[in-house]
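Morning!

This is the sequence you dropped in the shared folder:
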Amino acid sequence: MRRRFPKRLPHMLAGFALLLALQFLNARAAYGQEAKGMATRGVRTVSGQVVTEGEAPIPSGVTIIVETRDGKRSAEIHPDTQGRFQIPDLVRQTYVMTVSAEGFHTQEVFLDLKDGGDGVVTVQIMLTRAPSTKSSPPLPALTDLSAPKNARKLFQKGVHALQAHRVDEAREKFQKAIAEYPCYARALTGLASIQVAARDLDAATANLRQATRCDPGFPDACALLGQVLNNQKKFAESEDILKRGLRLSPDAWPLYDQLATAHYNQGQYAQAQEEWLRVLAIDPSPPGELHAKLAAVYLRGGARDKAYAEMQAYLRAEPEGRFASAFKSMMPRLGASGGQGVASPKPQQPTIPNP
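The structure's back. Tokens below.
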């Protein structure tokens, strides 16, 4: 039975958000006012067109941002109705051009303007359509359909208590719902989430195993169990649980996220990269921390330009996020030294904060 999985965690557990996060992991290059006084020979112009598949122009809603490699914005423009644009007076250096449009995947293009004559640099950017991000209500778990009415009511009361930060009350309601129906996978997972937050991992693991036995395709339970096993460095077992969950819930991006974590911590960087890119394919606007994870795995593989782009994407999504300071420190070294001597940040094991 293949079931769609909501793209956003607030839909999980009927509104109870499981926070599935990895923990891992100033000098700036000077660029500024002196560029304004440079002679014409010291600058270049970039001209081009933004198109879709089949080279059809995008009529409206396109934004182009040009930034230096140290993250300083040099230009922000909007192409005309034919997708055409021109950016004059760019200093001879390397830039990152980010092209975005509603309904399309964002594209990043590297512009190396250091070499060549003084002529116009011509580029064509092709955007591909992104899948619809409209969220649909999650299908009920198998055990939701068989749980008695009173158990479902108790579970909902537990959810409301948890949303109000009344954790003890939520724990009690989840326990009563499970007493009414011992195979209630959603209630078992809710209780396990509280236990994980309290670091009672043995009890949480037991409840999550029971939840996955009752409903092998319930993605909330599979993802959380995979995360707990990753935290315990039981990567092979985590991988087995997550793959079984994905066979029944192939759109559950948190399962791919945790599977990538298992691969990464076993040194399987190519597989980790593949799984994190699957997350991006399912949800084109993922949590900002996905970009931090991709930056780490790209550095491991030596793809420093891609790592740099992911760091920029993270800083745009979370400019004051917990990795912002580290990335701001690393990015000038990536630009200035070609990535030599820049250590790849290693993710720590996943943890779950108090709800």
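Headline: Residues 287-337 form one domain.

More detail when I'm at my desk.
O.
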